[in-house]
Amino acid sequence: MKKCVITVVGKDTVGIIAKVCTYLAETKINILDISQTIVSGYFNMMMIVDVAQSNKTYDEVINDLDKIGEGIGVLIKCQREEIFDRMHRI
Fold first, then answer.
1. Which of 8, 16, 33, 47 has the fewest C-beta atoms under 10 angstroms from its C-beta?
2. Alpha-carbon separation of residue 44 from 23, 27, 59, 76 (angstroms)
3. In terms of DSSP H, where are the helices of the chain?
4. At what angle do helices 58-72 and 16-26 cross, to 10 degrees?
5. Are 9 and 42 in contact (CB under 8 A)?
6. What are the Cα distances from residue 63, in Å, to 14, 29, 42, 53, 75?
7. Do residues 16 and 74 make contact, with C-beta atoms less than 8 angstroms apart?
8. Distance of CA 3 to CAs 13, 67, 73, Å?
9. What is the 3-state secondary structure (H, E, C) of 39-60?
10. How far apart are CA 81 and CA 70, in angstroms?
């Protein structure tokens, strides 16, 4: 299993979850865990995904998610789990 952390942040609009999840399904990226909240009109989602069976490279996924985010007005970041863990270690 190759885990990544995907975060989505921005103004809430219709279809954010649908667009991100549709892309992940089409790319054969499995969602292992997901949490989302909306606070005062701002959308925040964090996902743990398994990219082991992905039909795209890690760099392609990052670029695609950037484009999706630009198209719907949110910021989407994808980080490998080990890098995310090291960055957030206290």
1. 33
2. 18, 22, 23, 10
3. 16-26, 58-72, 81-87
4. 160
5. yes
6. 22, 15, 23, 18, 12
7. yes
8. 27, 21, 25
9. ECCEEEEEEEEECCCCCCCHHH
10. 24
**Total residues found in the chain within this entry:** 90
Mean model confidence pLDDT for the chain: 93
Residue 56 has φ and ψ, to the nearest 5°, of: -130, 160
Band of pLDDT at residue 22, cut at 50, 70 and 90: very high
Residue 50 dihedral angles phi and psi, to the nearest 5° = -110, 115
Structure tokens at 18: 């649908």
The number of angstroms, rounded, from the C-alpha of 43 to the middle of its chain's C-alpha atoms is: 13
Residue 33 is given by DSSP the state E
Could you tell me the two tokens for 76? 């989407």
Q: What is the signed CA dihedral for 51, 55, 61, 67, rounded to 10 degrees?
A: -140
